[in-house]
Amino acid sequence: MQLVRPSSVEEAVAALRGGAVALGGGTDLVPLLRDRIVEAETLVELHAAVPRGVRRCTPTSTSPSPSSARFWIGAGTPLAVLEAEPEIPTTLREACRLAASPQLRAMGTIGGNLLQATRCWYWRLKFPCWLHGGETCDAKEGQHREHAIFGNERCASAHPSDPAAALLALGARIRTDRRDLPLAELYRLPTDDDRSMTTLEPGELILELELPAAESSIYVKAMDRQRWAFALVGVAAARVGGETRIALAGVAPVPWLVSSPEELEQATPLPGTAYKLEIARALVQRALAQL
Amino acid sequence: MRCGFWRNVPWSGVWHEDRGVKIRLTVNGEPREADVWAGESLLTTLRDTLELPGSKNACEQGECGSCSVLLDGALVCACLVLAAQADGHEVTTVEGLADREELHRVQRAFVEAGAVQCGFCTPGLVVATAALLEANPDPSDDEMREALSGNLCRCTGYAKIFDAVRLAARS
């Protein structure tokens, strides 16, 4: 395995051609490399290449509400910077603060956080599960207490990102080296033909995010311990331009938008995850009451 | 040092023949260099190459904090940072806190408060506490809990540890 350290976006994109693996903060990738779940001949360290930082920005033509204030965030910005950024919407700040321990928030980047792999123990232990290309989802038959209640027909894994739910509720957009898209279009439920969880093309690199200022927003999270653990259920709610949006973490293979609290009743919980639906109902109610 | 069976175990914590990456970094104030495998963790380099075994290797998942070190002053898990990511940067380990024979005030406080049982989590907690007090000399109980939330102790519970943090803050 070799390591390259590009110093510009162009160099990074060139280095990522041919199956190289991008390394952001490393908090998710380093254990995956060690456990050989991710195999790489070349690692591309993004530290000096991908932008970092937060600033207010002028609205772009693609902004859904071009008149309001917006924020630009470099994809290489660590979560610890975002949680301490007083101007950005509360839901994102709180989601970053609650996402992980101080050690992980210091290294983990927002771009990498959006792309982190599932915590499903079968997948992480390299069971030949459906997501690894096999026939069946081991979690559905086996232990699945931390797994999905939505979108779980083929794979019951739960997406662990708190900031992704916050950014979905805000209607954030991302820009990659080749396109600009709503964050909602970054994610896809895996299918029999294509089991990836994102629409990123090979070697495509997330560079920046853009999000609106919210009139009001909140992030609430149920965990197994009071201070940092992956979300059993995370609920982001945001009111932007008079419209309220709700997104959930830890409930589906990808971050999950719901159009109304009633949509929670369309959940398809497994025997061991029925409790998550009750938590989701309570947290959505609490989030909307405090919005 | 590592041989036989261990060579075949596919962890980053294990010796790899391919050590094609040269890193230069400052560790505890001294310039150091090492030849590392590209996928090697900073923790492995610190312990096995730079002979600084104070940072402990426990979960290797970033959950326990036993390997906590400062990277350019920020508290990180050395098991989740590649050695190559630390190239050109400054690392402080628990070995770098004491001033020769004179223990750091956080170390003294842990001894005085009896905040150590088996001791495996202690180096990480000491580094995390030193980082906390550097940033916030008079933390509230809530700020202490937040700052140490990434460090697990499986022996004592945390009462003595928080006593030690309070003691260190006062000293």
CATH topology type of the largest domain in chain B? Ubiquitin-like (UB roll)
Percent of sequence in beta strands of chain B: 5-15%
Can you tell me the overall shape of chain B?
Answer: globular
- Total domain count of chain A: 2
Count of individual helical segments of chain A? 10
Topology:
The complex is a heterodimer of chains A (291) and B (171).
Chain A: E1 2-4, H1 9-15, E2 21-23, H2 29-34, E3 42-45, E4 54-57, E5 70-74, H3 79-83, H4 90-99, H5 102-107, H6 110-114, H7 121-124, H8 138-141, H9 162-170, E6 173-176, E7 180-182, E8 206-212, E9 216-222, E10 233-240, E11 243-249, E12 256-258, H10 274-290
Parallel strand pairs in A: 1-3, 2-3
Antiparallel strand pairs in A: 4-5, 5-8, 6-7, 6-8, 9-10, 10-11, 11-12
Helix pairs in contact in A: 4-9
Chain B: E1 21-27, E2 30-36, H1 42-49, E3 68-71, E4 74-77, E5 90-92, H2 105-113, H3 122-135, H4 141-147, H5 159-170
Parallel strand pairs in B: 1-5
Antiparallel strand pairs in B: 1-2, 3-4, 3-5
Helix pairs in contact in B: 2-5
Short structural summary:
The complex is a heterodimer of chains A (291) and B (171). With 291 residues, chain A is of the alpha+beta class.
Description:
The complex is a heterodimer of chains A (291) and B (171). Chain A is α+β, with helices and mostly antiparallel strands. Chain A folds into two domains: 1-48, Uridine Diphospho-n-acetylenolpyruvylglucosamine Reductase, domain 2; 50-290, Uridine Diphospho-n-acetylenolpyruvylglucosamine Reductase, domain 3 (2-Layer Sandwich). Chain A has helices spanning 9-15, 29-34, 79-83, 90-99, 102-107, 110-114, 121-124, 138-141, 162-170, 274-290; strands spanning 2-4, 21-23, 42-45, 54-57, 70-74, 173-176, 180-182, 206-212, 216-222, 233-240, 243-249, 256-258. In chain A, α4 runs antiparallel to α9. The longest helix of chain A has 17 residues, at 274-290. Chain A starts with a strand and ends with a helix. Chain B is an alpha+beta fold and 171 residues long. Chain B has two domains: 14-96, Beta-grasp domain (Ubiquitin-like (UB roll)); 105-170, [2Fe-2S]-binding domain (DNA polymerase, domain 1, Orthogonal Bundle). Chain B has helices at 42-49, 105-113, 122-135, 141-147, 159-170, and strands at residues 21-27, 30-36, 68-71, 74-77, 90-92. A five-stranded mixed sheet of chain B has the order 2-1-5-3-4, sandwiched between helices. In chain B, a hairpin with a 2-residue loop joins β3 (68-71) and β4.
